[in-house]
Amino acid sequence: MIGCHDLSVHFGPNTALEGVSATFAPGVLSAVVGPNGGGKTTLLRALAGLQKASKGKVVCDGPVAYLSQRPETDHRFPMCVEEYVLTGTWRRTGDARRLGRNEFDRAHDALCRVGLADKRAQPLEVLSGGQWQRARFARLIVEDAPIVLLDEPLTGIDVPSAELLLALLDQWRNEGRTVVTVLHDLPLVLERLSYVAVMAGRLVASGAPAECLHRGLPSADSTGGATYAGLSGAGGYTTRATIATSVAGAAPASFGGSARDGAHLPGSVAPPRGGPR
Amino acid sequence: MSMVWDLIVGPFSEFDFMRHALVGSLALSIGCTPVGVFLLLRRMSLMGDSLSHAVLPGAAIGYLIGGLSLPWMAGGGMVAGLLVALLAGLSSRRTRLDEGASFAGFYLLALAGGVVIVSKWGNSVDLMHLLFGSVLAVDDPSLILVAAIATVTLLWFGWHYRGLVLDSADPTFLGHGHGKSVMRYHLGFTVLTVMNLVAGFQAMGTLMAVGLMMLPAATARLVARTLPGMLLVAWLVASASSVIGLLISYYLACPSGPAIVLTAGIAYLGALLATPGQANTAKTPAL
Asked: Which of residues 78-117 of A touch B (CB under 8 A)?
């Protein structure tokens, strides 16, 4: 579980977030949507502890993993891909504790899973943009945190990478983790996620995607005007049709089925509370 | 063969001051090179330079109060260096100036203040001594100070290596989560940088102290591919430059600090020429 009470963030005279109260339950895939400048990233950064709140507080019941919008790692740092993925163990090992065999195995499995096993010993600077995102997913797997915050994880990556992440999300949901992700692809949110928080400087709506998103997105100035942003599909994940067919066809029924069940269930206003955790 | 050996070992076996200079600069090489490597990787190469200049007014005031005594000058230098680092850090956090601009502002202020203090109340010989150091005048207390600083540096790096690597490569990753503060890596590293510059300015002077820090690190960045490799190469280059530079200064009767830095500079130029075109292959990804 992670959430915030009456959270406000100001940057000088500018208000990025005003009085946001939200709770994201474990075992649920939650989305944060909203127009550009709506405070989505600020909300995630505040939840991750990277942004100090001007008012209000953040509550969480476990370690938090955070995937920033853009890779903020120094690409030129003399480090190989495996070492980068192993940095995900930091919370467990810290400065001095030994890296055990199982940590190396975990990193190796994660690299295989994201298809970067052959790049294991390569320096970071050989990775392309999409490969970077995959390496970051691998580190998230190694981090193994009960709360995962993702900021536009699908932006700028190809279909297989997107599928990989969606499969990961479903796995994490089934393992009872709390997953919060910023997305711009509203059809995807309607289809695959079961809770959504709509942001426009403040929390405009929250609940089941079908309930919250039928009118489109609010405008950024949050005056409540009816200018629907029509952002669905913008921001990267535009090849949704391909995914939808592949999910229906080839993907294992375990997550494909449950995802569709969750997404198409009408009227499920409150998110299912109290997952396995 | 034995004649060459005599030429190399002779000056050190014959003269006490050469032995002192050798031990001092080898100890400096141990402490300064990891600091230099991480300054370079954190893209703070010029911050080292700024801080080395910032040490001057403190050392000058210490010199005026206590004369040419180590505790006063080193202590004054420490205080001035840390003060400039603190003020520059604060101003880059609180204003829209970035770290480079803040450091430039404060170090120029400190440098000018230091030169005014020395020329008003000291004399030009003092100023030359402070600016250019005198590795041949390193005495026993100075050696102990330099060795102590090198020891503390190595212990700190050994203990905080992983965190410092993460703080340099990926500060956002280190900062997330609601755990304990990670400022200690940045603060500790800044303190160590100032300490090593203070150790260096005794021997090399405030203008040259940063030479033994950055030139071996830059050479290593060009030559080595991994971080441990970089640290090793930087240390080897610094140690070799110390020995060769001291011999050059002995045989050509030139100032020893600049001779050491020049030797390291030649290694740097050699690495530049030997590894052409590598920058082009190291493209940053599109994302």
From this structure: 78-80, 87, 90-91, 93-96
**What three-state secondary structure class fits B279?**
helix
**CATH number assigned to the domain covering B2-272:** 1.10.3470.10
Tell me which residue of A10, A221, A41 sits closest to B172, measured CA to CA: A41
| Contacts of B6 by beta carbon, 8 Å cutoff, 6+ apart | none
**Contact call for A96 and B159, based on CB within 8 A:** yes
What are the φ/ψ torsions at residue B16 (nearest 5 degrees)? -60, -45
The answer, yes or no, to whether residue A92 has pLDDT greater than 90, is no
Alpha carbon B152 to its chain's center: 15
Flag whether residue B141 sits within 8 Å of chain A, measured between CB atoms.
no
Is the reported ipTM for this assembly greater than 0.95? no
Domains, chain A: 1-61+179-277 (3.40.50.300), 63-145 (no CATH)
Instruction: Give the closest residue to B106 by CA, choosing from B58, B63, B39.
Output: B58
Strands A203-207 and A195-199: antiparallel
Residues on chain B touching A93 (C-beta within 8 angstroms): 162
Task: Write out pLDDT tens, residues A173-230.
Answer: 999 999 999 988 888 888 888 899 988 888 888 888 888 877 666 655 444 433 344 4
Q: Are the CB atoms for B209 and B193 separated by under 8 Å?
A: no
pLDDT digits (tens, 9 = 90+) for A26-66: 999 999 998 888 888 899 989 888 888 888 888 888 888 99
Q: Which of A59-68, A94-103, B125-134 comes out lowest in average pLDDT?
A: B125-134
